[in-house]
UniProtKB/TrEMBL annotation:
This is Major facilitator superfamily (MFS) profile domain-containing protein. Keywords: Membrane, Signal, Transmembrane, Transmembrane helix, Transport. The lineage of its organism: Eukaryota, Fungi, Dikarya, Ascomycota, Pezizomycotina. Coiled coil: none annotated. GO terms for molecular function: transmembrane transporter activity. InterPro entries: MFS_trans_sf (IPR036259). One of its GO terms (cellular component) is membrane. It is a multi-pass membrane protein. Residues 1-31 form the signal peptide. The chain crosses the membrane at residues 41-61, 68-90, 102-122. It comes from the Eukaryota. It comes from Fusarium kuroshium. It is found in: Membrane.
Length: 171
């Protein structure tokens, strides 16, 4: 619907659980019971981040073997996070759960930094490939429909995104 905004949408979605963790740490225990409930709801809104990250990987990793390896690594990292993170939410930290909130804050901020870094790197790579295609360097230009030449449109092949110079990363 809005091309080129997937990573920016993922960054925006990071602010929902981030807000939940901040509220959970800062709201008073007395008189803000519903605020604490709402903050736990907001803090748990992380499934959209999983979907966004998976779609960014699917769109930007090319080559069957490479895509399989990256997808497995992503899944393993997700599983490790799901196994480790509950240990940060211990009853000794109740009712604030500072250790769990700090883990949530730091991991969400790290994800935002990762997304921003991804956008910077990908824009540079795309700009470099576009400039080389404009200079008519053949490996950066792809044959289009009817024999025309196009830049940034990659044919279906088993080359990786690094090997296929006609491939352009999706932001």
């Amino acid at each position: 619907m809005f091309p080129g905004t997937r990573t920016y949408t993922a960054i925006d979605l990071c602010f929902v659980p981030l807000l939940g963790a901040v509220l959970l740490m800062t709201l008073p225990c007395e008189g803000a019971e519903w605020g604490i409930v709402v903050s736990t709801w907001l803090g748990g809104c992380s499934s959209a981040l999983l979907s966004s990250s998976a779609s960014i990987i699917a769109s930007n990793v090319k080559g069957n073997t490479k895509k399989s390896v990256v997808s497995v690594a992503f899944f393993i990292a997700y599983c490790v996070g799901c196994i480790v993170s509950p240990f940060a939410w211990t009853s000794k930290d109740a009712p604030r759960y500072a250790q769990g909130c700090i883990l949530s804050l730091s991991s969400t901020i790290a994800l935002i930094i990762t997304y921003v870094g991804f956008v910077i790197v990908v824009k540079r790579k795309n700009d470099s490939r576009d400039a080389k295609a404009a200079d008519r360097q053949v490996q950066y230009v792809v044959e289009g429909l009817g024999g025309s030449q196009q830049a940034g449109v990659s044919t279906d092949s088993d080359l990786t995104d690094v090997q296929d110079k006609g491939f352009r990363y999706t932001i």
